Amino acid sequence: MRYAVVYEKTPGNYSAYVPDLPGCVATGATREEVERNIRQAIDLHLEGMRREGEPIPEPASWTELVEA
Questions:
Q1: What was the pLDDT predicted at 37?
Q2: DSSP for residue 32
Q3: What is the per-residue DSSP string for 44-56?
Q4: Does 6-51 carry CATH code 3.40.720.10?
Q5: C-alpha span between 32 and 15 (Å, rounded)
Q6: Using an 8 Å Cβ cutoff, are 5 and 38 in contact?
């Protein structure tokens, strides 16, 4: 499955979250680090859901860049 990830630059670091997986977040000092960390967070999040017998949500979010 492919989940949409939202990345944000904050004053002190980078952060990321997955809209379809509430609570699945990551941070990093660099873009590369946060990208690596969110992939690991997704794997761990899904592993925990499977272990608890929770249903794995189908991806439903998407991203788009809108010119303004």
A1: 98
A2: H
A3: HHHHHHHHTTPPP
A4: no
A5: 11
A6: yes
Span 6-64, pLDDT tens digits: 999 999 999 999 999 999 999 999 999 999 999 999 999 999 999 999 999 999 999 99
DSSP state of 6: E
Give the whole-angstrom CA distance, residue 42 versus residue 45.
Answer: 5
Calpha distance 20→68 (Å, rounded):
26
Q: What's CA 24's distance to the chain center, in Å?
A: 6
Q: Tell me the residue ranges of DSSP E strands in the chain.
A: 6-9, 14-17, 25-28
Separation CA 47–CA 33 (nearest Å): 21
* Beta-sheet pairing, 6-9 with 25-28: unpaired
